[in-house]
Design brief:
Layout (H helix, E strand, L loop, with lengths): L5 E6 L5 H17 L5 E5 L7 H10 L4 E6 L6 H17 L4 E4 L7 H16 L10 E7 L5 H18 L3 E6 L7 H9 L5 E6 L6 H16 L4 E4 L7 H16 L39 H4 L20
Helix pairs in contact: 4-8, 6-7
Length: 316
């Protein structure tokens, strides 16, 4: 195994056991795609094993090159700061290793196709027929204080809106950014469309996805004349796995280039001018590996981590 690049899949982590199970299913799929490579996975926060544990296991089994791929959709605080901090610290302790860090999934044709399928599945499950020109599409992103990452959700929405022929498209966020889900859906309900389709642009289930669906139900109850439809998230669709495979292979081909043109840590972005050159450090040490709700046997309240310098860009 040592002469073949090993793979480390870096997940966000969640307090929700279902989200951890779905991430582990992703890792299983990638192991099947790379049967000749040593593959480990780990989490940035809450769930175990933590990323460092996975990296140590690869070294113990003789890895000389490790390809670290973020299991995340967009490049916000996690991909720009927390994960590089973890990987850089590990690499500094193992100068004999070739450790590479991949880019996020980003906006990809295949992920848009998965969204299309999830939306079509939700439409097919509806009892009545509503023309798409009478339908509003609501794409829900995680939300972060990185305006570049937030804007990517708008691009996803726009491409689905135009490509699938919806009458209108809107974006809202599960946290940090505005509008939040209740405000976004309440505003959408005033626009006069017969049907509103909500699709969480998330990789895995978790506390936030369940909350999005619950909030959709709450707004639906207040607007009985509108049909509210809940579409599925990305999950372990084969095209999602294909996208991960590409990100891993990019690290070997040298095409692993993150788009930094609008990165607030490199450029003077409106409203975030003071963050240019901010140190690349992690902010999850206090929740690293502390376990899920299932481990503790009770339900945690969502603390939101508002005290972090860099807010989250991915799901929990």
């Amino acid at each position: 195994m040592s002469d073949t690049p090993a793979i480390m899949i870096c997940g966000h982590g969640s307090r929700d056991d279902g989200a951890v199970e779905e991430f582990n299913l992703l890792a299983k799929n990638l192991r099947e795609r790379f049967p000749d490579r040593d593959v480990e996975s780990g989490f940035l926060e809450f769930a175990t094993p933590i990323i460092r544990t996975g990296l140590d296991k690869l070294v113990e089994r003789g890895a000389k090159q490790i390809l670290c791929v973020p299991g995340m959709l967009f490049a916000a605080g996690h991909v720009k700061n927390d994960l590089p901090s973890e990987i850089n610290n590990f690499a500094a302790e193992h100068e004999e290793l070739d450790v590479r860090f991949g880019r996020e999934l980003a906006i990809d044709r295949r992920l848009l196709e998965v969204c299309q399928q999830r939306i079509e599945e939700a439409e097919a499950a509806c009892e009545g027929e509503v023309d798409r020109k009478d339908t509003l599409l609501m794409v829900v992103g995680r939300g972060t204080n990185d305006s570049d990452a937030n804007s990517n959700v708008h691009k996803v929405m726009r491409m689905l809106w135009e490509g699938m022929g919806f009458g209108w498209g809107e974006v809202c966020y599960s946290g940090v950014a505005f509008p939040r889900v209740p405000e976004g859906l309440e505003h959408a309900a005033k626009l006069g469309y017969k049907r509103i389709i909500t699709i969480p642009y998330f990789l895995f289930t978790g506390i936030l996805v369940q909350r999005i669906y619950d909030q959709t139900d709450e707004v639906a109850a207040q607007n009985p004349d509108i049909e509210f439809v809940k579409a599925g998230y990305l999950k372990d669709h084969p095209l999602v796995i294909d996208t991960f495979v590409d990100r891993i292979e990019e690290m070997l081909s040298g095409e692993n280039n993150m788009n930094c043109q609008l990165c607030k840590y490199r450029e003077q972005i409106i409203g975030y001018e003071g963050e240019v050159g901010t140190a690349q450090v992690g902010h999850h040490h206090h929740v690293m590996g502390i376990g899920t709700d299932g481990d503790h046997g009770h339900h945690h309240h969502d603390h939101g981590h508002g005290h972090h310098h860099h807010h989250h860009g991915d799901e929990k």
